[in-house]
Design goal:
The complex is a heterodimer of chains A (166) and B (193).
Chain A (H helix, E strand, L loop, with lengths): L4 H19 L6 H14 L7 H29 L22 H4 L6 H13 L3 H8 L3 H25 L3
Helix pairs in contact in A: 1-2, 1-3, 1-5, 2-3, 5-7, 6-7
Chain B lengths: L8 H12 L9 H71 L5 H11 L1 H6 L9 H9 L16 H8 L3 H5 L6 H12 L2
The chains are: A mainly alpha (166), B mainly alpha (193).
Chain lengths: 166, 193
């Protein structure tokens, strides 16, 4: 049985921005990954047991594949010495988040893996087991790394507040 | 969330602040995305229906092919059984007829087969007319010179044959002239027999 259009619309309204932020860990074309994942969810003959976890997993795979494709294209264009190629570093996908809050921008201080754990834990609503399944780690390891990432963010925000009194 | 992460209060407050933070809204049109999703779902439905119809047609076709295969196999088996029955029946009737008829004489069968065989008839030695040896010697001695023992050796010397038949010695000595049938045909009219 396919997913109902109403449920799909609810998922789109609630999780599209989170999924785009999640996909931005790997690629600049995060919104394309999100759209394709929603279309793929609509074409599924059998509704996934947990559509949110399914969406995060599919978005992750698509973003990683897109990142690899971007890297291959970058290498080809560097070999051709194309001068007008727009330099995009995968580690700076969050550079276009001017409209995000300061807290979200602080995610840029984390590593990619730490960002992934924070986003999955805070905005997806998934359990630790589901997060561990998506990231291919153990649940306890994901919890430890998540706490470590939050401490790192807090330290970064405190240092920023100290250096920038405005 | 169903499980706790065991964070300190400071980290929990940071977690709550992050959860309530506003994210940048996506720039794509949700209406357009819903339309695309519905269109893709319809295409998937149509392809699945087509696949189902194809599988049904394939199963029907397979059933039809199986029907004809089973029918052909059954017909072939029945034909083989009937042919074997007919063969056994004919053999049994022939055996009964042979038992019922009189046993044929082997000599008559052999003679009939020899007479009916043209090759055997052609190669069978022709019966020579009975010639009296004394009469033959008298005819030959009449002005003719015979070699020693022509009768006992069963043949006539070349000189006698040459003189009697008027044939050349080379003809007489040729392999074709040694044929008893040809010699007979040439000699007997000369001898008046």
């Amino acid at each position: 049985m396919r997913i109902e259009p109403q449920e799909l619309a609810v998922l789109l309204n609630q999780h599209s921005a989170h999924l785009a932020l999640y996909a931005a860990q790997w690629t600049r074309q995060s919104e394309d990954c999100v759209q394709e994942s929603f279309v793929e969810l609509a074409t599924q003959t059998n509704r996934p047991t947990n559509p949110i976890a399914w969406l995060y997993s599919v978005v992750r795979n698509r973003a990683i594949n897109q990142s690899r494709s971007d890297q291959r294209r970058k290498q080809r264009e560097q070999q051709l010495a194309k001068p007008d190629w727009e330099a995009s570093q995968v580690d700076h996908e969050l550079q276009n988040v001017e409209q995000q809050s300061e807290l979200v921008v602080a995610l840029d201080s984390l590593s990619r893996q730490e960002r992934e754990w924070v986003i999955l834990r805070i905005w997806s609503g998934l359990t630790w087991d589901e997060i561990a399944s998506i990231t291919s780690t153990s649940s306890s390891s994901a919890q430890r790394n998540y706490a470590s990432a939050l401490k790192k963010m807090r330290t970064h925000l405190e240092s920023k507040c100290l250096t920038n009194p405005d | 969330m169903s499980d706790q992460s065991g964070l300190t209060p400071e980290l929990e407050s940071l977690e709550t602040s992050l959860r309530n933070a506003a994210l940048k809204p996506v720039s794509f049109s949700k209406e357009e995305l819903m339309y695309r999703a519905g269109y893709a779902a319809a295409l998937a439905d149509r392809s699945s229906v087509a696949a189902t119809q194809f599988s049904v047609r394939a199963s029907e076709k397979m059933a039809r092919s199986w029907f004809w295969q089973v029918l052909a196999l059954t017909s072939a088996s029945a034909a083989i059984v009937l042919a074997s029955l007919l063969n056994f029946h004919s053999i049994g009737s022939m055996a009964k007829e042979n038992l019922a008829n009189k046993k044929p004489d082997p000599n008559s069968v052999v003679s009939e087969s020899i007479q009916s065989h043209s090759v055997v008839k052609a190669n069978r030695p022709l019966p020579l007319p009975s010639v009296d040896p004394v009469q033959l010697l008298e005819r030959l001695d009449r002005g003719q010179q015979l070699s020693s023992g022509p009768i006992t050796q069963g043949r006539i010397s070349y000189v006698s044959l040459e003189s009697l038949s008027g044939m050349d010695r080379s003809v007489i000595q040729s392999p074709t002239a040694h044929s008893s049938f040809e010699l007979r045909n040439r000699l007997l009219p000369e001898l008046g027999l």
